[in-house]
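Protein record

Derive tokens from sequence
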Amino acid sequence: MPSFDVNPKKLIVFKLADKYVFKQYFDQKQVFTDLSSYYNNSKYRFEFTEPEKQSVLETLREHNYQPELVKELKPYIVGKKRYTKHASILKNSVSQRMIGDYNLFLMKDTFSVERALEEDAEQLDKLEIERTAEEVSDPDKWK
């Protein structure tokens, strides 16, 4: 059931390899209930495939969310040196991987990117890694 909120809440949805993913805490239990079959408990995120896309996006819209499909990952990727504290960054990420001496995080939205940078994470193009930013931000390389 849609809320009476006039402005829909923006929600970033990423296309990673063969699935779409997003991370969101829903204030209304019914939203989670309606989407629970897409929730991956081990990764703390929602996942769905191309055939399910329209149904999931429509459900989000019905609950006053404005899903935005994002193909360019680079602005949402931050890194932090391995073996440093990163629990709060991980909590707000959709996916994580390691390259060289860095943990890389795909953050769920721009606000989470800003928070990660405040916690000493660095933007992708400022990291000293062996691969180019384009290689690292390739959606097919993220799971």
Summary: The longest strand covers residues 9-16.
